[in-house]
Amino acid sequence: MSTVTKPGAGATSGAGRGLGERRRGQRAGGGVVAGHLRRLVPRLAVTILVLVEVLPLVWLVMSSLKTNAEFYTRSVWSLPEGFYWHNYVSALTTGSMALYLRNSAIATLPALALMLLLSVAAGFALEIMRWRGRDMVLLLFLSGIMVPAQMILLPLFTIYFKLNLVNNLASLVITYTAYGLPLSIFLLVAYYKAVPRELLESATCDGASIYRVFWQISLPMVRNAIVTVGLVEFFFCWNDLLFSYTFISTGSRLTVQTGLLSFVGQYGEVSWGPTFAAVCIAVFPTLVIYLLLNQRIVKGLTAGSIKG
Questions:
Q1: Domain ranges of the chain
Q2: Residue 250's pLDDT is what?
């Protein structure tokens, strides 16, 4: 039996197929545009964030290269007329920034070394070792995190005054070490949770002492965490103003943050060029340290969130 095709049926079918293809093309084009928009939004956000972070640093450097006359006669956003590097020489010599940097290093580095040594040992003892009362000791350490720094200023000042430690950098070393230990121990206890217990137990079964397990096996496994904790505590000690301003008042013992306050002269007069140069000297070394250790910091931050 022959089939009879109605006139116009093929054209209708072809038109339908064409319409469907156009609709699919429109949906595909819309999907491409939506994909571009989804990628554009985070890129735009990152660009804005970079500009917010970088532009103040650029402005700080440009301001450190201006003469004092430029601050009073031109806009604060204007570029310097020349590169007045003498501001950095004045900040290091006349402004005593070299002395302040040395004092900050003397107060920060010993405190950081003590803090890391004690917190690594305490984290190992509280998480890896099993002994009666360790939970109570851990709770006692963690309670130190909840103590505001303002509450301990007066008792510490009284103690340091009776021990003749006021205007002595040893008072800052003691304070930084004691105040930073609770947070350091809390972080390292979390990082030690990611250390495989099987590895430590097998070393013990092979005859390794607890000291060898600590120094040669567990310590290398948390080195990224140590770098992370050390950098966090370094920034706290180096940028401290509260403790150093309270315990140190002698000019020859001032640290970087309290030393910056001395750039304000009599009647509030400020030498803006050397002041901005001193701020650059205080900011950029810590920024370089962070950039150099950035990868280790990321690895250390993720190590404590995964339990092996």
A1: 9-50, 86-303
A2: 82
Q: How many residues does the chain have?
A: 308
Name the one residue in this structure whose structure tokens are 């130190």: 144
Contact 179, 258 (CB under 8 A): no
pTM, two decimals, is 0.78
What are the per-10-residue average pLDDT scores of the chain (308 residues)? 50 52 56 70 83 87 88 83 88 89 94 94 89 87 87 93 93 94 90 84 84 87 88 91 91 89 64 88 87 71 51
Structure tokens at 72: 């009073």
Q: Report pLDDT for 42.
A: 81
Q: What angle do CA 133, 139, 140 make, to 5 degrees?
A: 90
pLDDT given at position 307: 46
Fold observed for domain 86-303 = MetI-like fold (1.10.3720)
Helices (H), the chain: 9-64, 68-73, 86-92, 97-127, 134-143, 149-162, 169-192, 197-205, 210-212, 219-221, 223-238, 242-247, 256-260, 272-292, 294-303
Q: Which of 188, 172, 187, 185 is nearest to 111 (CA)?
A: 172
Q: Which amino acid is at 3?
A: T
**Could you say which DSSP state residue 270 is in?**
B
| 188, 122 Cβ separation under 8 angstroms | yes
The single-letter code of the amino acid at 53 is E
